[in-house]
Design brief:
Elements: H1 3-6, H2 12-32, E1 50-52, E2 55-70, E3 79-94, E4 97-104, E5 116-122, E6 125-133, H3 138-141, E7 162-172, E8 177-184, E9 202-209, E10 224-233, E11 240-243, E12 256-259, E13 261-262, E14 265-269, E15 272-284, E16 287-303, E17 309-323, E18 331-332, E19 335-336, E20 345-346, E21 351-352, E22 354-365, E23 381-392, E24 397-416, E25 422-438
Antiparallel strand pairs: 1-2, 2-3, 2-25, 3-4, 4-5, 5-6, 6-7, 7-8, 8-9, 9-10, 10-15, 11-12, 13-14, 14-16, 15-16, 16-17, 17-22, 18-19, 20-21, 22-23, 23-24, 24-25
């Protein structure tokens, strides 16, 4: 690291947020002392909402700071990192009108604007307009504070993220049926000459069935399954697929890359993009299980002087979460909810907060036809597993230890040494230690 990078101008909003959260941390510990050892109330915001007549506004946020270690000698990525530093202002103007503004304070992200929208509510249904998560995949719609692994699965690289659009979402039959359907920008605002004049919005939807919701059968009332689908006309400027494993997040490493500059030459045209997903989840007492299958396909990729070809990718994962201290994970609104510890940390009274363990296995399959074996930037297959330990000493605080192992079917180039030699990896072993606070 050179001196110029190390002595960068400080990020003042981020520094202010860190100081503010530190004050909140000490304040919460101080105020919590009389209650330690007793059952906690359900998780609520640390800062009380402001209410005035029909107006109600609340301030929320999340800070995640971590150290990530790589076991491979070929990697030089060991580092401290701020994984997330987000602040959110949400409010209700009227009973039927809600507003949300969420901003990422990190300066090394491409899009600082997160869930920022207005929503009209009509009982169990809402019409949302703005910039927000697209209704696709259980992992995608699960909020960050309800994640119990260092990163989402490899398949997360194949799903749509946030963008500008409009969405109708809600539930029927006492939450037995949940849905989301929207029109969004096609993941790109580039208006350069490389666009092939397609400006149709992407159509994206998610449908979830929870046939036993509301029943007295505790074994089955949290079971849900469903699927997602998305289709869009593509522009060449929007084709930039970068698939990442846990240890490649927040780095310039990828395990598969596909862009408009391919091994067959620069693409001249592209057709459509299709995404499909299937998911299932179930929770019982202290156990939660979920799994997904994701498929991504591009049609009619046409290199210069070559016939058009398709490209397809797929991924799946299965994960489990178990709380040794008796907390009960729940899928509400058809997504996993954050956990609040049943007992606060108080060793004098024999309580140590909540302890949860997680395990996940996953697989990625890329399109062999679009790999340039001489470039060493893409692997056709990847298999991974992750183990995590989560300690929640107080509400809104979490300490995580995560180990992730990934095996690649093809070598990936990671760096060029001063003598001209090249380091490659065909597996990855990553340990993440993270502290998170939500307020």
């Amino acid at each position: 690291m050179n001196g110029k990078t190390f002595l960068r101008k400080p990020n003042l909003p981020l520094t202010g947020l860190l100081l503010f959260i530190t004050i909140l941390l000490f304040a919460q510990i101080s105020f919590a002392k009389p209650e330690m050892g007793k059952a906690l109330a359900p998780c609520t915001n640390l800062l009380k909402p402001i209410e005035a007549g029909s107006l109600k506004f609340s301030l929320d946020g999340v800070l995640q700071t971590e150290y990530r270690f790589y076991a491979e000698d070929e990697r030089s990525d060991n580092r401290f990192n701020i994984r997330r530093a987000q602040i959110e202002l949400s409010g209700r103007m009227q009973d039927w009108l809600r507003l949300n503004f969420e901003y990422e304070l990190k300066d090394d992200v491409s899009d600082h604007l997160l869930d920022t929208y207005a929503e009209i509510r009509l009982r169990w249904h809402g019409l949302r307009l703005g910039h927000f998560k697209k209704p696709f995949s259980l992992e995608q719609v699960t909020e960050e504070r309800a994640l119990f692994f260092a990163e989402r699965s490899i398949g997360y690289s194949l799903v749509p993220r946030r963008d500008l659009g409009v969405m109708l979402h809600g539930a029927f039959a006492d939450n037995a049926v949940g849905y989301g359907l929207g029109l969004f920008n096609t993941e790109g605002t580039d208006s350069s000459a490389s666009r092939n004049e397609h400006d149709d919005p992407a159509v994206i939807g998610r449908l979830i069935l929870a046939p036993f919701a509301g029943s007295d059968n505790t074994w089955l009332n949290s079971f849900q399954f469903g699927g997602s689908a998305a289709c869009a006309r593509m522009n060449l400027s929007d084709l930039k697929l970068m698939v990442k494993s846990t240890g490649m997040i927040d780095t310039n490493r990828n395990l598969y890359v596909l862009s408009h500059d391919t091994k067959f030459g620069v693409l001249q045209d592209i057709g459509d993009r299709y995404r499909y997903g299937a998911e299932a989840a179930w929770a019982f007492k202290s156990l939660a299980l979920q799994g997904e299958y994701i498929r991504l396909a591009y049609t009619d990729l046409k290199p210069a002087g070559q016939p058009a070809k398709d490209a397809s990718f797929s991924a799946w994962y299965v994960s489990g979460l178990y709380f040794l201290t008796g907390e009960t994970p729940a899928y509400e609104n058809h997504r996993l909810q954050p956990i609040c510890p049943a007992q606060a940390f108080d060793p004098k009274n024999g309580s140590y907060g909540a302890f949860g363990i997680g395990a996940r296995v996953e697989h990625f399959s890329g399109d062999e036809d679009w790999i340039n074996p001489e470039a060493n930037v893409s692997s056709e297959e990847a298999d991974a597993f992750s183990l995590s330990v989560n300690w929640l000493p107080f509400a809104m605080h979490k300490v995580m230890l995560d180990f992730s192992h990934t095996e690649l079917s093809d070598q990936i180039k990671v760096r060029v040494l001063p003598d001209g030699s090249i380091d490659y990896i065909d597996d990855e072993n990553t340990v993440t230690i993270r502290y998170s606070i939500d307020f």
